[in-house]
Amino acid sequence: LLCSVGHSEEKFGFTYEEIIICLRLALLNEAKEVRAAGLRALRYLIRDSAILQKVLRLQVDYLIARCIDIQQSNEVERTQALRLVRKMITVNALLFPSSITNSLIAVGNDGLQERDRMVRACIAIVCELALKNPEVVAQRGGLSAILKSVIDCQLSRINEALITTILHLLNHPHTRQYIRCDVELEQILAPYTDSHYRHNPDTAEDQLKEDREARFFASKMAIVAAFRSWSGIINLCKSGNSGIQSLIGLLCIPNMEVRRGLLEVMYEIFRLPVPVVTQDFIEALLSVDPSRFQDSWRLSDGFVASEAKVILPHRARSRPDLMDNYLALVLSAFISSGLLEGLVEVITSSDDHISVRATILLGQLLHMANTILPHSHSHHLHCLPTLMNMAASFDISQEKRLRASAAVNYLKRFHEKKKRGPKPHSLYLDHIIRKAMVVHSRREQHHRVQKDVSIIKDTEEALLMNIRDSHILNHKQNLEWNWVLIATILKWPNVNLRNKDEQMHKFVRRLLYFFKPSSKLFASLDLEHNKARQLTVAGCQFIEFLLESDEDGQTYLEELVRDIEQWLSCSSGLKPDRSLQSNGLLTTLSQHYFLFLGTLSANPSGVKMLEKCNVFQCLLNLCSLKNQDTLLKLTVSTLDYSRDGLARVILSKILTASTDNCRLYSTKHLRVLLRANVEFFSNWGIELLVTQLHDRSKAVSMEALDILDEACEDKANLHALIQMKPALTHLGDKGVLLLLRFLSIPKGFSYLSQRGYVNRQLEKWQKEYNLKYVDLVEDQLNEALTTYRKPVDGDNYVRRSNQRLQRPNVYLPVHLYAQLVHDKTGCHLLEAQNVVPDLSYTVRSPTLDNWEGVKHLKAALWALGNIGSSNWGLNLLQEENVIPDIVALAHHCEVLSIRGTCLYVLGLISKTKQGCEVLKQQGWDAVRHSRRQPWPVVPDEVERQSPSELSSVPSSLSLNSESTGSRHNSESESTQPGFYILDDEKCDLLGLPEELPLYMRSKPQKDRGPFTLLPSGSSVRRRLLSTLTLPSKKLRGTGDPKAGKQGAPRRSRTITEPSDISPTERSLAPKHYLHRAGGCIS
């Protein structure tokens, strides 16, 4: 009736009160079907607050509560009742009656014991009501029910939703009053902190262990989720007996079960992979190696594109990574509360498998501290006096001393692994990286290898002796040949097949027969064979050996290439299933023939050979065949594109003519080539990516857009993109943001200004885009920190994943104002529009009573931070004197999420050295090295300068040799956004001035990594500093052979080591968060 007639009392012939009274009778009917129908009719009837008020005035809410509390088996009626309850919350939550609230909370509290299937639905409704009407929930004890359910729930998505409800209420002062932070929030720690904890008093003794493990797991998820939000961090790290101090204090209690659980919590909080449970340190270390094989790297899945995204670093040079800000804040709080000392205690007094895990965690945290904390707050961490003293002391038990000594050795191994950095797992990625080296580097390496090898006895006798010892001439079992010696022979310098002994020709013919596809020797071996990698590397060396040989070598090479071409033609001529089965492309070494072709394509002579044997033509024909995705993947992943030629033609054809999956993979491979720094990528790669922007598949076009966004971190690529003048607006907001990057250089600014685009965008940003920017940034942060996943293809359903990403990056999206302030013209434009004064007014007079006002304040803060990310923009902020107001908000704002936003914003202001000095005057300290220097030893300040001098001097740390804009504002002249911690206690170590420059003698052979392990004591520190400090005009040690060659002034050199951890950014940690609990680190 309601659906057909509509909501009109005249058409009904009855008033709403009369209808409600009739429906009320239905709720008292004996038949459950009638009661369910009455509830459903009420749900359709209630459409606004006026009708809801009439329902409540007639006390129907008590009947609804009765339906919820009725027997559990009556699910139809209870389901209708809960649907009606949700409709009431949607219409007007402030009118929600306490009678129904009591019923919902009762089911939520006791439903699990009674195996009530409606318990989760009731708790979900209580959470929804708590967000819209927290008062009624708090008065009825609903918040305690939610927290109790947190420890009951082992599903990460539900657990996170429950604890996030409480954290949301803690965020705003209006709702914070309903929660006793020191009592209620810290309930989530109880399974760890209470050694006699029982969630349910009536739990049977034989189920206690299983129940305790379940509570540990639920508590771990809740603690991690709490540390993913600003309200959780601030409340758990507050001064006094805080939650963080309780957790770290537990490490000193010799309870192995609790220690194991807490270590897992720490790994989760810091986004680190958890090692396998083992007593072998090396095995545990290998299990967390980023280079370890992952299933997504298989040929049938993401292949090289997936591997490269993990192994190769992002191209961003100066773009802030917000995850660094967040992790630096949390890390500083934990270190100040004694985490490192707690881990040392765990290492020296725990079982082997727990000790190994704690050692790896200690190494990871020390590395992280060295990367993202300011020098003044991390330099003292690496001495580890407690561990060293225990390793050297005979006053403690032998077992503890041996464990401490072993930990020191383990940390040294850990450092060596970090220093080496991640290595490619597959030969395909290794091939790309090696071939992508710049020509002069490759040439230098070639000459160096030749020189080194020539030290070996370069005689005919030695060569022939090696051939005999390799067993290749007299042994028919190919796998029993000495492949190490064979590789040595293939790299032998100055070998020429002409006039060589017959033994050398026989050696080559034997190898040729082994590697030919038609022989089915190499090709039939399994991919998992223990010599597979060695044999393939030898095959590539054999190709290079033949390429460098004379005419005889070319003859052998042509025979091999023609055989590969015939195999390739046969493979492509069959149906895909049959092809893969007959040739074993997915499981045998036959797929590595594409590496042979890639090796040939990287050499001019090899390219000619490929053309001569029609291999390129065969690959081109392959592009037009259907269902050949695997062959095309291998083709794209192995060919060399550094020279203009048929390889690029094949790539271009695959990008445009193949199946959707293949086009997507080949587009992703362009990111591999970008990150591998393939030569002249800007000349041809950008053009291919722009073509992909118009692909019929949205997935392909969005992938190309994302790669272009990363590519534009290099000025050469940005210039190439502007030169092409692509259409980007059809790609939505992301396309607009990429177009805005044009404004960062004069050429792009001029191009867009002539079309009136800049003024139109300024109007849009002032009206709506500044607010959209807040949503964009917070969506990215939520996706990185929680189980939330963005909807796909316009789907409104919020997808969640049980799998959290390990250490994702959240690079700050492009902002119009940040691009404009790269140039003086853009700054004048902002000045003319009075942008900074308007934003400053919002910061000084915020409206925090409603979420709309909070969002406007966040938008203003992000806008000011982006303006302050260059020296030109920073001058505008200083003229308005708004930076102290931002700092004040970071300290004292009652809305806790605003403090987090201020943290990120101050990190943006610290991008330049001038910004660092301005913030230092406000009592904040900074990381002053770039993300390309992950192993800095000393700060890069050359000499002490006053802030007034610094204001006119660009950063001494150049991130990009090109200067495309003003000297003051070039992105290449800015330092990295780094971690800030309030510097209340000034550094007066040894009575030296705080900014006294320190220089390191150049000692290439000396390992200067962050794990310098020294005993404590001021005398040792004095000796250490005396070795670090040299006269300000003498930057090299006397032992340096280059020490007197050049008289020109030099910058301070920062000794660095390569690393596999993603580059560091500047981040901030306010005193308000860390005072005592987090500590003011100095």
UniProtKB/TrEMBL annotation:
<dbReference type="GO" id="GO:0043539">
    <property type="term" value="F:protein serine/threonine kinase activator activity"/>
</dbReference>
<dbReference type="InterPro" id="IPR029259">
    <property type="entry name" value="RICTOR_phospho"/>
</dbReference>
<dbReference type="GO" id="GO:0031932">
    <property type="term" value="C:TORC2 complex"/>
</dbReference>
<dbReference type="InterPro" id="IPR028267">
    <property type="entry name" value="Pianissimo_N"/>
</dbReference>
<dbReference type="Pfam" id="PF14664">
    <property type="entry name" value="RICTOR_N"/>
</dbReference>
<dbReference type="InterPro" id="IPR029452">
    <property type="entry name" value="RICTOR_V"/>
</dbReference>
<comment type="similarity">
    <text>Belongs to the RICTOR family.</text>
</comment>
<feature type="domain" description="Rapamycin-insensitive companion of mTOR">
    <location>
        <begin position="854"/>
        <end position="926"/>
    </location>
</feature>
<feature type="region of interest" description="Disordered">
    <location>
        <begin position="1032"/>
        <end position="1082"/>
    </location>
</feature>
<dbReference type="InterPro" id="IPR029451">
    <property type="entry name" value="RICTOR_M"/>
</dbReference>
<feature type="compositionally biased region" description="Polar residues">
    <location>
        <begin position="964"/>
        <end position="977"/>
    </location>
</feature>
<dbReference type="Pfam" id="PF14663">
    <property type="entry name" value="RasGEF_N_2"/>
</dbReference>
<dbReference type="InterPro" id="IPR011989">
    <property type="entry name" value="ARM-like"/>
</dbReference>
<dbReference type="GO" id="GO:0038203">
    <property type="term" value="P:TORC2 signaling"/>
</dbReference>
<feature type="domain" description="Rapamycin-insensitive companion of mTOR N-terminal">
    <location>
        <begin position="1"/>
        <end position="374"/>
    </location>
</feature>
<dbReference type="Pfam" id="PF14668">
    <property type="entry name" value="RICTOR_V"/>
</dbReference>
<feature type="compositionally biased region" description="Polar residues">
    <location>
        <begin position="1055"/>
        <end position="1065"/>
    </location>
</feature>
<feature type="region of interest" description="Disordered">
    <location>
        <begin position="935"/>
        <end position="977"/>
    </location>
</feature>
<feature type="compositionally biased region" description="Low complexity">
    <location>
        <begin position="947"/>
        <end position="963"/>
    </location>
</feature>
<dbReference type="InterPro" id="IPR029453">
    <property type="entry name" value="Rictor_IV"/>
</dbReference>
<dbReference type="GO" id="GO:0051897">
    <property type="term" value="P:positive regulation of phosphatidylinositol 3-kinase/protein kinase B signal transduction"/>
</dbReference>
<dbReference type="Pfam" id="PF14665">
    <property type="entry name" value="RICTOR_phospho"/>
</dbReference>
<feature type="domain" description="Rapamycin-insensitive companion of mTOR middle">
    <location>
        <begin position="458"/>
        <end position="676"/>
    </location>
</feature>
<dbReference type="Pfam" id="PF14666">
    <property type="entry name" value="RICTOR_M"/>
</dbReference>
<dbReference type="InterPro" id="IPR028268">
    <property type="entry name" value="Pianissimo_fam"/>
</dbReference>
<protein>
    <submittedName>
        <fullName>RPTOR independent companion of MTOR complex 2</fullName>
    </submittedName>
</protein>
<dbReference type="InterPro" id="IPR016024">
    <property type="entry name" value="ARM-type_fold"/>
</dbReference>
